[in-house]
Design goal:
By secondary structure, the protein is mostly helical. It has one domain. 83% of the residues lie in helices and 0% in strands. Helix 2 packs antiparallel against helix 3 and helix 5 packs antiparallel against helix 6. The longest helix has 44 residues. The protein starts with a helix and ends with a helix. The mean pLDDT is 85.
Amino acid sequence: MTELSGWQNFYVIVGSSAGALIGLQFVLITLIANIPVGDGGEQAGHAFATPTIVHFGAVLLLAGVMSAPWPAILPAVIAWGILGFGGLGYAAIVARRMRAQTASRPEFEDLLFHILLPLVAYGTLAASACAAYSHLRGALFGIGASALPLLCIGIHNAWDAATYHVFVVKPKKQKKQGGGE
């Protein structure tokens, strides 16, 4: 489809980045797996770690959908609309999980990168699907304006999780081990 052909390089770059970052997130989780999980740790994982993988996965899926050789634009519009509206629902689930978890008190930055910015990105994606028939060119830019922030949100959240475990959780563990001897 000619409307999508100009976007191929964009989706190759964004999709490849998302796929690689999913792999790195799994490496990170493996490396910190030996750190004991405190009270509410599983809930915190559902609120903070899982959304990172979901956002990277959404970008990867979106890149695949937008790179497929569709015979018409309708299947792509439906796919990115489902992803956008599904992402809005998922952001609401993350908000509920964040309130329910007891491992840490969410700060403004947590609310911004785990709830507000994903809502904007997925909302833009859903709105782009709704606008595709009347403004296809603008809708395609709207998709790009959704994919890049989701990728950056995932990068921020992965970095935040890594630094939290290195600078907060690990020193607490070492202090407990050193203090008990």
